[in-house]
């Protein structure tokens, strides 16, 4: 009888973890535009991005200051500046949310020209980072936006140290790394490394690039530890070619048809469009359900 009760408690606990999802927050304002095309069993969407609607009608100062209805004010009182140690020295980062035992951890890595402030800037990118902060704070999660050395091996070592630190603080957390543009270089090195890939539960590539090494990894080729991948790309991106990124996504699907990967193409969008337009709640909840 005791054994049965213990089993039932374990089952209920596991179901509770599986059933966890982020609560709604301004969902209508941040939902994707109308869908123009769907394929790959619904894992690929082409959506109707519109510069007039999604920038000029959304921002009071285009690209610099979103209108008030898109944000929750006062988050600066909840944010903290902290530091972490890595093989390259001490780096600073912002954090908002639970310091320990977080249910979800999101580490956002900026691209070229960025810094730790990008991921906590409330007013730029259409208020999308403000929404991400609220989603983490109000769902027992934590958002971490660090500085790091570069987009290559040294920067990867920095973020690997940060991941280890947050794994110690929250052993049961669902840990996501979200990479903008050239930050994807760090994302892919982490995913391709046996030492770090098993510590990552989801990955965002926002206007970023691809990794042929990932196609050859056991993560893709063997059923086991699979990292759910979200690709967001603008169809007019001139930094990283959208066709090459889409081909990469479909190569993953051809190797492993059941691999948890999604691709959203923002029609007429440019390089920074996915950071502005990604529906954080929709995609994080998908990652939570895919595990």
UniProtKB/TrEMBL annotation:
Q: Which GO terms describe its molecular function?
A: hydrolase activity
Q: Which UniProt keywords apply?
A: Hydrolase, Signal
Entry keyword annotation includes Transmembrane: no
User: Is Signal included in the keywords of this UniProt record?
Assistant: yes
Which InterPro entries does this UniProt record tie to the protein? AB_hydrolase_fold
Where does the secretion signal sit in this chain?
1-19
Query: What protein name applies here?
Result: Alpha/beta hydrolase
Origin species: Pseudahrensia aquimaris
């Amino acid at each position: 009888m005791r054994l049965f009760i213990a089993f039932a408690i374990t089952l209920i606990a596991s179901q509770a973890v599986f059933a966890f999802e982020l609560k709604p927050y301004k969902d209508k304002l941040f939902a994707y535009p109308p869908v123009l095309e769907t394929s790959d069993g619904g894992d690929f969407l082409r959506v109707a991005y519109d510069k007039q609607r999604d920038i000029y009608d959304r921002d009071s100062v285009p690209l610099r200051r979103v209108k008030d209805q898109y944000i929750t004010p006062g988050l600066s009182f909840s944010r903290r500046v902290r530091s972490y140690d890595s093989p390259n020295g001490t780096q600073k980062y912002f954090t908002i949310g639970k310091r320990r035992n977080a249910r979800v951890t999101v580490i956002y890595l900026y691209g070229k020209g960025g810094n730790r402030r990008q991921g906590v800037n409330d007013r730029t990118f259409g208020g999308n980072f403000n929404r991400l902060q609220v989603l983490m704070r109000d769902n027992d999660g934590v958002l971490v936006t660090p500085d790091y050395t570069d987009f290559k091996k040294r920067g990867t070592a920095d973020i690997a140290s940060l991941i280890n630190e947050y794994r110690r603080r929250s052993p049961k957390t669902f840990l996501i790394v979200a990479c903008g543009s050239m930050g994807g270089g760090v994302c892919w090195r982490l995913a391709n490394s046996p030492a770090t890939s098993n510590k990552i539960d989801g990955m965002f590539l926002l206007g970023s690039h691809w990794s042929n090494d990932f196609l050859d990894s056991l993560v893709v080729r063997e059923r086991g530890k699979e990292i759910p991948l979200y690709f967001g790309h603008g169809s007019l991106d001139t930094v990283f070619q959208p066709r090459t990124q889409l081909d990469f996504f479909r190569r993953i699907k051809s190797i492993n048809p059941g691999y948890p990967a999604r691709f959203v193409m923002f029609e007429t969008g440019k390089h920074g469009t996915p950071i502005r337009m990604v529906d954080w709640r929709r995609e994080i909840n998908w990652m939570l359900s895919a595990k």
